[in-house]
Amino acid sequence: MSRDELGIFSWVAAAVFALAVGVWRPRKLHWTVLGSVLLFAALNAGAGIYVLNHVGDPRWSAGEPPLTAPSFSGTPMVGQFLGPLDSALNGVVSGVNAFLAFKQALPVALDFLGTSGWALLASFPLGILASVVSYIMDRRRTADFEKYRATVDRLKVELEEIKAQIPSMNSVGTALPAEDDVTDVRPTPTR
């Protein structure tokens, strides 16, 4: 992936996460937003670390070719004595090329790491906001539960009152008819 594709990937992955989890759990949307911001921060930090681990990659360079050391071993008459100088010079040039590659990759990595830092900074107020929203929803749910509990308690009291009245009705002589005493009150078909 190129530098731009890495940046776009973190945005798209965070947006897809927010949409998927938001559809799956719409009542916890505040936590979903916080999770997507933290995912965005983690992806950007991972991209920055990836750039730093692949310093010599040409995707981060500005198109500058690496430096090459001249060869002194081909020099007439003294070239055979300058062979160790060639290897030392190649070592120095490879070190300079590694430094230049790091110098070119560092701004790219810092861009990703800086974006990750800003996302983490934004996650603190979002975390506080999500906690407040969750607390308010918890209080509302507790109040609704207490309201339902009061209704159930009131209905239990009414049921006990009705149960208490039923035995007193039986003693007065209002007993229910026996099964054999039930008469059929359905209308009969006429012809």
Report on the architecture of this protein.
The chain crosses the membrane at residues 6-24, 31-52, 117-137. Keywords: Membrane, Transmembrane, Transmembrane helix. By secondary structure, the chain is mainly alpha-helical. The chain has a domain at 3-72 and 85-133. The protein contains 3 helices and no strands. The chain has helices at residues 3-24, 29-53, 83-172. Helix 1 runs antiparallel to helix 2 and helix 2 packs antiparallel against helix 3. The model has no long low-confidence stretch (mean pLDDT 82).
Quick structural summary:
Keywords: Membrane, Transmembrane, Transmembrane helix. The chain has 191 residues and is mostly helical.
Write the layout of secondary structure elements.
Layout: H1 3-24, H2 29-53, H3 83-172
Keywords: Membrane, Transmembrane, Transmembrane helix
Transmembrane segments: 6-24, 31-52, 117-137
Number of helices: 3
What proportion strand? Answer: under 5%
Q: How many angstroms does the end-to-end distance come to?
A: 90 Å
**Low-confidence runs (pLDDT<50, min 5 residues)?**
none
Rounded to an integer in angstroms, the radius of gyration calculated over CA atoms is 40 Å
H/E topology pattern: HHH
What is the helical fraction, as a range of percent? Answer: over 70%
Transmembrane segments: 6-24, 31-52, 117-137
Keywords: Membrane, Transmembrane, Transmembrane helix
